[in-house]
């Protein structure tokens, strides 16, 4: 009956508005956190310093949060306002943005599976020079790595050789004590004997352990995106009938 159809359409419209309002608020929160990290990175580090995200640089984290927050704000606004105003143009824009993100996620997942080795090489190429230059020089960077190496029981990114020709080694004539199971002085003989694993391998193990959870979350997000696209297309088609 037309009444039931109208009721169903109104229900879907209200759900679409509420769903996108939640996305909009999440985007605003992430954007706020991102700006805070960008402006006040020091205090952010002190609070979240022990996290393994510390291997990334804080500035990059802030840009990522700002970008994700901004995208969520745009998606939330388009979906919410488009459903409220029954605007075909905004609903189509919403559908297009979500579709682009969905395709990007699928491509990223495929790339992650295919190029894990490449990512390892890339990370080694980026982080190892940072360790050589900044460890023992930059206090925040050094503290983060010390906490990470102590908690994860690891040394450098690959192993103790990451500190060869580094500022720290040239200054102290020894490796960080985490490379020798906290024994000092940590010379090359003891470091080779103890053979403490690199943090990358340890973090990779941690990632693999949590891969199931990450996969479940990714599948959930993908399902939400498909649902959002289906609902926006349904509302778009309903407007075509009017």
Verbal overview:
With 242 residues, this protein is mostly helical. Helices cover 78% and strands 0% of the residues. The longest helix is centred in the first third of the chain and has 38 residues. The chain is elongated and about 80 Å long. The chain has 10 helices and no strands.
Which overall shape is indicated by the principal axes computed on the Cα atoms? elongated
The SS-based structural class is mainly alpha
Amount of helix: over 70%
**Rg measurement, Å:** 24 Å
Mind summarizing the main beta sheet? none
Strand content: under 5%
Uncertain runs: 50-56
| Number of H- or I-type helical stretches | 10
Taken in chain order, the helices and strands follow as HHHHHHHHHH
Mean pLDDT: 79
Oligomer: single chain
Termini separation: 16 Å
Q: How many strands appear in the DSSP assignment?
A: 0
